[in-house]
Amino acid sequence: MKGRIHSVESCGTVDGPGLRFVVFLQGCPLRCIYCHNPDTWNTKGGKVVDSNELIEEMKDYLPYMKFSNGGITLSGGEPLLQPDFVLDLFTKCKELGIHTTLDTAGSVHPANLKEILNVTDLVLLDIKHIDNRKHKEITGLSNRNTLKFAKLLDEQEIPMWVRHVLILGYTNDEKDLTELGNFLSSLHHVQKVEVLPYHKMGEYKWEALGLNNQLTELSPPSNEEVEKAYRLLTKKLIR
Ligand code: SF4
Hints:
Layout: E1 2-12, E2 20-25, E3 47-50, H1 51-59, H2 62-68, E4 71-75, H3 83-95, E5 99-104, H4 113-118, E6 122-126, H5 132-139, H6 144-155, E7 160-166, H7 174-185, E8 190-197, H8 203-208, H9 223-234
Parallel strand pairs: 2-4, 4-5, 5-6, 6-7, 7-8
Antiparallel strand pairs: 1-2, 1-3
Function: Activation of pyruvate formate-lyase under anaerobic conditions by generation of an organic free radical, using S-adenosylmethionine and reduced flavodoxin as cosubstrates to produce 5'-deoxy-adenosine.
Main location: cytoplasm
Family: Belongs to the organic radical-activating enzymes family.
């Protein structure tokens, strides 16, 4: 099956457990003001690849994956914009005994979502804001699907690592973080919470694409601010 990808990272270490073959799929419905991969947005960009060829490429890294308890991660962009491709890749990976991780913002709910989740071992769920109005301000879309997605994962007992990007003045309000922490504490399958400090490494891409970057003057949060956010998010978490 053909799919459209942005790039591949053969030995990723941050998108799930162990060493991972990370495939960044092309296309995203969100427009996060801090996105460090705006070159993944265009659904017609990237390159078309065949899932069998990707699997063959991935096989070269199987020893490293197995040795480190790693696997494959489908990221983006938003991988769920290409649900049939995700299902095909994950099904083939499960046949090979490979751990599968889906890195998503949960904003797209394709018709075959249940089938995809049946072959998904872990979800990295990016919750951008608990406040719907502020979520729309920083991503362009409502957070309703994302929160629904988290509940669906919980019902299906799928482990999730929740990620939250910390941007000063946008996502670091104490009340909002407490409320997001309360939401997380209502779930039973959150294995990990990661606070990702906003960084400026993708800025050159905004410039290259001629996009208006609202955050050029903004500094990344300090370690103390990241730790404080982490405490607020995890205070009531069920483990
Ligand atoms: S969901 Fe990810 S890829 Fe999409 S706009 Fe937001 S940060 Fe960028």
